[in-house]
Amino acid sequence: MLVDAGLAKRPGGPYVPANGCKGHGMTFARKVWHFLVAIKDGLVLVFMLMFFILLYGILTGRPSPGTLVDGALLLRINGVVVEEPAPRDPLQGLFGGASQPREYKARDLTRAIELAAEDDRIKAVVLDLSQFMGGGLVNMQELGAAMDKVRAAKKPVLTYAMAYTDDGVMLAAHASEVWLHPLGGAFVTGPGGNRLYYANLLKRYNVKVHVYKVGTFKDAVEPYILDKGSDPSKEARRAVLGSVWDAWKADVAKARPKANIQLVTSDPAGWLEAAGGDAGKAALSAGLVDKLGDEVAFGDRVKAIAGEDVLAEVPGSFAHNRYETLLAAHPEEDGGEEVAVVTVAGQIVDGKAGPGLAGGDRIAKLIDKANTEDAKALVLRVDSPGGSVYASERIRLALERFKAKGRPVVVSMANVAASGGYWVSTPASRIFAEPGTITGSIGIFALIPSFEQTLQSFGVSSDGVKTTPLSGQPDLLGGLTPEAERMMQANIESNYGRFIGLVAKSRGKQPAQIEAIAEGRVWDGGTARQNGLVDQFGGLDDALAFAASAAKLEKWHAEYYGSDADPYGSLLDRLMGGDEEEEGQQSATDLAGLFAAQQEQRLAGALAELQWLGTVRGAQAYCLDCQVPLKSVLPRGRTGWAANLATVLGLR
To answer: CA-to-CA distance for 200 and 218, rounded, in angstroms?
Structure first.
């Protein structure tokens, strides 16, 4: 009997598949399952694509600044005031990376406060400084002057903080009412303090630091080769810090005559003990603050002036506007001819880095763009301790190209314009600075660490065959030859001579005259004006007016190049709860909290200095001790041997 393959006879029934329906059924089920999985995967991909498109749209879109209402101008400055904010990393903020301190553009804050004096809808200006992290002296002076304009317009200016420190005390001095949380305090430390020296640490690990420099006062190399500061370094620092301190005290005394700074700074422990250890009462007794009260009491006080925020249910809420809203309601004029403004802020580095760092290629491109777009004059706003000689020269040459068309170049110095920051200022026909500006530091250096002694301590030696004295040089593992050392020093001396020549030509002096005030020494703005490195006291507005006059412009406007708003900032502030509209988590800002924060910054600074030594770079026209924010010390994302060493030693 023939039986079809795969068929079997069921007892008492017809022929069926040998394994019943199981084979075909399982095959069909698998096909259905694969089809469903494919649909699921496709939907996931579609939704992920839609999510990232939406996220990109949110991140690149700029939220509406809102509508201006009758009330106060509220400035919650939860971070640092700088000349040029660095862009914020959206991924770092969104996915749990270390939070970046918020940076506020000094020009925007100053302009908003000045507008508040003129706009009838603004009834008062309120500064919440509870999480204020400071800014440069020049920036604080400009903000204080703007606050004075509001008071001159018969409008109150009120400040509130958990605790005030030097820059906060300075701003509060310009207020009509200064409020302090009852558990807070006001403390004045003054500029200066100790710095770390790493020579013995490097010696312990047999790291040899090769130094090439010109300038008795060029002390940027000293932390790596000495165990304490040299006498010339301390001499220069005393002079500069003394002038900065005098400028701070003069500003506070003029704005708030009743403040007893002498009491607060001469015997701070005795002053606090006399108040029974109550820092709030001590601040009241010294005239640093006017009222003690929490944020609700402060808000109720502002509400009595500016009106109630009818949409808010939080106690102490008052009608207010963000500074972005006020700026949007008063757009800057753009009529007439263009006077370009280009900012050099932070360390000057090679490449396109920035904002927040002054990448030489990026800055030069901005200047060339202003040149191409036929700006009639250019103001270079400098707030930099210098950096790469090559990048500084790139910027200088771009300014020379602008001048070659017969158009004026003017420099406006902010807090710091030293070393490379002065190098880029040499094309200017006029240099403006403030008495508290730190400038000069005309000197050159280079540092190269080598590890031949480190390796020898572990039994590792170096040997080979050379065809010339420079074969294999520079050899950081086997050591540098005398010829390589001599060539490095000769090159540094040549660059220093070029620096001296550029300054002499710019200042209309002989090189010997410049060399007498160079040698890497830093100067305050007042002394720099006396010795001819600075022409005139004044801020950015003064420099703009001079540039327009020099270009014979009757109608003009300032055009700021490279100053587009950070598209991520406002969104990140909302996502991470850091927007100035929200109360946010207050950090501990009593005396112990302040000391702890300073220690954290000190450790971060020490690690940054070690990493700075180990990062590959060329000749530097850089002032390492010019009180710039830590963010300006190192290019982002760069690491060196010192960072790895710090990790091994458990320092990070």
So the answer is: 20
Name residues whose C-beta falls within 8 Å of residue 318's C-beta, 6 or more positions apart in sequence: 71, 72, 126, 299, 302, 303, 306, 307, 308, 309
Report d(CA 427, CA 482) in Å as an integer.
37
Strand partners, 128: 76, 160
What's the residue count for the chain? 652
- What DSSP element (H or E) covers 7? strand 7-9
Catalytic residue among 218, 303, 376, 631: 218
Give the 3-state secondary structure of residue 553: coil
**Is 419 known to be catalytic?**
yes
Is the Cβ–Cβ distance between 155 and 117 less than 8 Å? yes
Question: Which amino acid, residue 378?
Answer: L
- Answer whether 344's CB lies under 8 Å from 306's CB: no
Q: What is the DSSP string of 69-132?
A: -SEEEEEE--EEEESSPPPP-HHHHHTTPPPPPEEEEHHHHHHHHHHHHH-TTEEEEEEE-TT-
Question: Cα–Cα distances in Å, from 112 out to 154, 325, 327, 331?
Answer: 17, 9, 6, 11
pTM here? 0.81
Residue 19, phi then psi, degrees to nearest 5: -105, 25
**Contact of 206 with 454, CB cutoff 8 Å:** yes
Q: Can you state the angle between helices 106-118 and 137-152, rounded to 10 degrees? A: 10
What span, in angstroms and rounded, lies between the C-alpha atoms of 329 and 331? 6
218 is catalytic: yes
Q: Are the beta carbons of 286 and 164 closer than 8 angstroms?
A: no
| Residue owning tokens 């709860």 | 577
Ranges in the chain, pLDDT < 70: 1-26, 28-29, 32, 52-66, 88-100, 563-618, 624-652
The one catalytic residue among 392, 419, 425, 570: 419
- Evaluate whether 63 touches 325 at the Cβ level (below 8 Å): no
pLDDT of residue 16: 46
Number of Cβ within 10 Å of residue 22's Cβ equals 10
> Tens digits of per-residue pLDDT, 194-247?
888 999 999 999 999 888 888 888 888 888 889 999 999 899 889 999 999 999
Backbone phi, psi, residue 606, to 5° = -65, -45
The predicted pLDDT at position 562 comes to 87
CA distance 59 to 568: 5
Cα 31 to Cα 37: distance, rounded to the nearest angstrom: 10
Strands (E), 272-376: 291-292, 320-321, 337-345, 348-349, 358-359
